[in-house]
Amino acid sequence: MNDNKSGFEIGIYTLADIGPDPLTGKTISAKERTKEIIEAAKLADEAGLDVFGVGEHHRLDYASSSPAVLLAAIAQATKQIRLTSTTSVLSTLDPVRLFEDFATLDLLSDGRAEILAGRGAFIESFPLFGYSTNDYDELFEEHMELLLQLTEHERVTWSGNFRPSLTNAQIAPRPVQEKLPVWIGVGGTPESAVRAGRFGVGMALAILGGPPRRFKPLVDLYRQAGIEAGHAPQSLKVGVTGHAYLAETTQQAKDEFYPYYSNYWEYVNRQRGMGTRMSKAEFEHMASPDTALFVGSPQQVVEKILQQYELFGHRRFLAQLDIGGQPFKNVAKGIEMLAAEVAPIIRRETSK
């Protein structure tokens, strides 16, 4: 089992996308997808990985609009893996409901719950819950401020612009953990990095491609903003999230992953109104050794994680393995390799 003394956490996350398998043309149901996600979490827990994350999307081509509910089911099927949202779309969630859901998850899981809040890649939750995209930034800022107060106090008095004010409101239940951990997901804007630092919460960088060093200024801004706001340096935790695929050799990994990865970007781009398809040459460039796409042999993936560790000094890495309509056996293999052949080396190297 996981004996993680280095403090570097390795895990996986899913956005629960439902896409056709490009090799068979078959698309699984939301019910099957949900079952596979719970199975993946069990495998990750048994293999000794540290964290399992579930995303939030409000679309028919994704199976998870309620991370807390899915994670509650996972809590019952696992023993020690930490459970987080990746991400909760905080701009359009009521912070009280979000906190209470994850505090309940914390009770169910005996203290394993976390919230990773972000602004989301899509905007359909805005009209769905009666919010305006004109208030995109202000909503996130205000909801974050309230969420952090809820983690600190059993009774809260608060007022803002977007939800009814609270007067000595009881916030129940209280979690098992003294304080429910909160992170902010950051995609690449300096403002988001500074905000995460100012709030003194963890910063999870979504690094989906390109050279990782372009994210170094964000990490510096985050730490600087955190220290200037009076937060202890050790409380400013950085995580990296990214797409990953593992096989015995890097060539095999690229050959196996390309059909699924180009398929994934084809339907994600289509959802965003763009009709582009990734060529083999573009994929080869994205997967080259000095970029952030974690595709390759275990050794190649270890090198990429350690290269980023040199840059960022981060304490957590989460891999998204199950994208593009892959059969579950591919995902299961990736979990096994990540846990058995990547995690031990990363933990050893980062504890030096």
UniProtKB/TrEMBL annotation:
Gene3D superfamilies in UniProt: Luciferase-like domain (3.20.20.30)
Listed A to Z, the keywords are: Monooxygenase, Oxidoreductase
Keyword Oxidoreductase appears in the UniProt entry: yes
Q: Name one GO cellular component term.
A: cytosol
Pfam family for this entry, one: Bac_luciferase
Recorded hits in InterPro entries, A to Z, give: Bact_Lucif_Oxidored, Luciferase-like_dom, Luciferase-like_sf
Q: Name one GO molecular function term.
A: monooxygenase activity
Q: Which SUPFAM superfamilies match?
A: Bacterial luciferase-like
Protein name as annotated: LLM class flavin-dependent oxidoreductase
Task: Specify the species.
Answer: Bacillus timonensis
